[in-house]
Amino acid sequence: MSLNRRQVLTGFATTATAAALVGSSTAATASSRSHAELFPTIIHLPDNWLPEGIAIGVLPFAYFGSRADGSIYRANLITGTGRVLPTPGPGTPAVGLKLDRVQRLLFVAGGNAGDGRVVSAHTGQILVNFQFTTADSFVNDVVLTDNAAFFTDTRSPVLYVVPVGRHGSLPEPTDFETLLLPTELTNLNGIAETPDRRALLVIQSNTGTLFRIDKSTGAATPVDLAGQSLPNGDGLLLDGHTLYAVQNRSNMVAVLRMSGDGSSGTVLGRVTDPNLDVPTTVAKFFDRLYLPNARFGAVPPATTFTAVGIPVPRL
């Protein structure tokens, strides 16, 4: 399925204009208000939302998927308010999320539905659904590269690869590849590119091991972290040479300085916040990291959910 090229180019122009307007408006407002007042640190999500993934682009809006039914919630980072996108989810989970560079498409990992979806960031409508497998699976997270979307599967040693065209064109629902990984690479979760964009970084949750994976062959090697590990590793976010790794049940974010090729890294430190309650994934806007609280294992089962904004660590 191909997107209209004129629509894509218009999307670029619209996004650039909107970013400039938001930027100038934010700057003007910030001159008379503190940053803390301008950007709320707690974003309240709908009751029973069961969040896990988050996506933020160049505009001050965060998107949260629901593990309950796959619907998408769009929150304004300036006001803290938001709304559920009008097209409801398919009744299956939305887990990891990524937003394309023109802020039009959300790539959604479908959890135990075994699929990945491309969804309109404006309406929530599913544009393409890729049914990767009907076997036991948990499609957990996704990263966008220059020409593809790579999805992890926690229950199988594979990556699902969806080609993405130069101007955002999408393939037919059956046009994806399954990249085989070494058989010991189960329990994979968060995924990011290496700083040089030539390979992928993927976290193995049960061992806390970070792996570097070849995009073409699936060859995998542990990243040299000088004896450190990332237990309960979940979502990953690369910002330049800095990698943020969420450690969900540890209620913390590890901050790493990565080598260009991603073969080694240094754990600079770990940060936490009293408002974190089993955070799962992370996205960045200006000088804050935003993390949804999944609240796994809450007793009694959790019904209220939030996302937390914390200052970008300076380590």
Brief synopsis:
The chain is mainly beta and 315 residues long.
Description:
It is built from 2 helices and 24 strands. The protein is mainly β. It has one domain: Methylamine Dehydrogenase, Chain H, CATH 2.130.10.10. The strands form 6 sheets. The protein has a 4-stranded antiparallel beta sheet, with no helix packed on it. Strands 2-3-4-5 form a 4-stranded antiparallel beta sheet, with no helix packed on it. A hairpin with a 5-residue loop joins β14 and β15 (199-204).
List the main descriptive attributes of the protein structure presented here:
single chain, disordered N terminus, Methylamine Dehydrogenase, Chain H, 315 residues, four-stranded antiparallel sheet
Strand percentage lies at 35-45%
Radius of gyration over all CA atoms, rounded: 18 Å
Helix/sheet category? mainly beta
CATH class annotation: Mainly Beta
The total count of helices amounts to 2
The CATH homologous superfamily is termed YVTN repeat-like/Quinoprotein amine dehydrogenase
Q: Give the total of beta strands.
A: 24
Mean pLDDT: 90
Topology order in helix (H) and strand (E) letters: HHEEEEEEEEEEEEEEEEEEEEEEEE
Number of domains: 1
CATH architecture: 7 Propeller
